[in-house]
Design brief:
Number of domains: 1
Strand content: under 5%
Structural class: mainly alpha
Shape: rod-shaped
Low-confidence stretches: 1-10, 231-244
Number of helices: 7
Mean pLDDT: 78
Radius of gyration: 30 Å
Number of strands: 0
Length: 244
């Protein structure tokens, strides 16, 4: 005769589920806030990575297609519509073509093109940095939000223990352990936000260097008719090409 052992499944009475079921509106509200912070942080990280990859791909495309064209206009037409490097080139070309002679005494062509390109670059930079302040905010405040939930939970646990009059370890450990889950969740929200912020900032510097190099070469070409970044032998494009 075979003996069969029945395995009993014991639910954890002090887990996250119990914390949600037994918590009041403050505890539940704190959990919801941290969930929103976590989801929005991951959304920002993913979207910024997509934006950075697009700009890095655009930088390679500009090097391959734009600078091998016979003129600025032809190079612009080679880039896809909506491309950030195309927008910068269009703004620079438009500024050089619409620089009126009567303004020469006030604003030189060099300064006029510089201001136009700077505005375009600032627009791209705004897209790159958008959302990063939120990551910094989440990284710095999420641990304190979790700590608030822990303090609130411990307070209610101690009140319940005092009312019941039982202060044994099994009565204290459970409620206090539930409250400490809040701190763990706060750290779990903050750490990815801080790491993502620092990583995106470092990648943004690389992207901005590529944009800055393209803008400097474009400015030099629009003003002088030659690109600074290429050897002199291959930089003999006619000055009139910038106006085409």
């Amino acid at each position: 005769m075979e003996n069969t052992e029945a395995t009993a499944v014991v639910e954890n009475p002090y887990g996250l589920g119990a914390l949600w079921e037994q918590g009041d509106f403050v505890a539940k509200g704190t959990l919801i806030i941290m969930l929103i912070m976590s989801l929005t942080s991951w959304y920002v990280i993913i979207m910024k990575l997509i934006d950075q990859r697009k700009l890095m791909a655009s930088a390679k495309l500009a090097e391959q297609k734009f600078w091998t064209a016979g003129s600025i206009r032809e190079g612009i037409d080679r880039l896809p519509k909506g491309d950030a490097f195309r927008v910068i080139a269009e703004d620079g070309l438009r500024a050089s073509q619409h620089h009126e002679g009567r303004l020469n005494e006030r604003i030189a062509l060099h300064d006029w093109v510089t201001m136009s390109l700077q505005r375009s670059v600032e627009g791209v930079t705004h897209v790159l940095t958008g959302g990063l302040p939120w990551l910094a905010t989440v990284g710095s405040t999420a641990p304190f939000v979790g700590l608030f939930g822990t303090v609130w939970g411990i307070y209610h646990a101690l009140v319940a223990i005092g009312v019941s009059g039982q202060a044994s370890i099994d009565k204290v450990a459970g409620p206090v352990g539930e409250a400490l889950i809040m701190t763990a969740i706060g750290l779990a929200v903050a750490v990815p936000a801080v790491m993502g912020y620092n990583w995106l900032i470092r990648r943004n510097k690389d992207v901005q260097e590529q944009i800055g190099g393209f803008t400097s070469d474009l400015h030099a070409f629009l003003v002088s008719g030659s690109r600074v970044a290429v050897p002199a032998a291959s930089a003999a494009a006619p000055a009139a090409a910038a106006k085409k």
